[in-house]
Design goal:
about 90 residues, Arc Repressor Mutant, subunit A, three-stranded antiparallel sheet, 5 helices, about 60% helix
Length: about 90
């Protein structure tokens, strides 16, 4: 039941805000996300591992920098659209 795990991963406020930021088509590294969320790097790293484990994001290491992007943007946009419908 993969859908449940995706919803569960997006159910946490920090992870959800990270995904929304990643959907803006910017190149993001861990420090960018740390600055955006105002969370320390260790917290961001833990949250990114969960998102990566559930197949929501891809983490690529370029030199010593970890870059993050959405794995399947179309799918995640559809899920978020459905989440917003439920919230109404």
């Amino acid at each position: 039941m993969k859908e449940y795990k995706i919803f569960k991963a997006l159910g946490e406020k920090t992870r959800y805000s990270i995904v929304l930021e990643l959907l803006k088509d910017k190149n993001n590294c861990c420090t960018d996300l740390s600055n955006f969320t105002k969370k320390d790097l260790s917290t961001i790293s833990r949250q990114l591992k969960i998102l990566e484990r559930e197949g929501i994001i891809i983490i690529e290491k370029i030199n010593k920098t970890k870059c993050v992007k959405i794995k399947d943007k179309k799918l995640i946009l559809e899920i978020i659209k459905n989440i917003k419908k439920i919230k109404r």
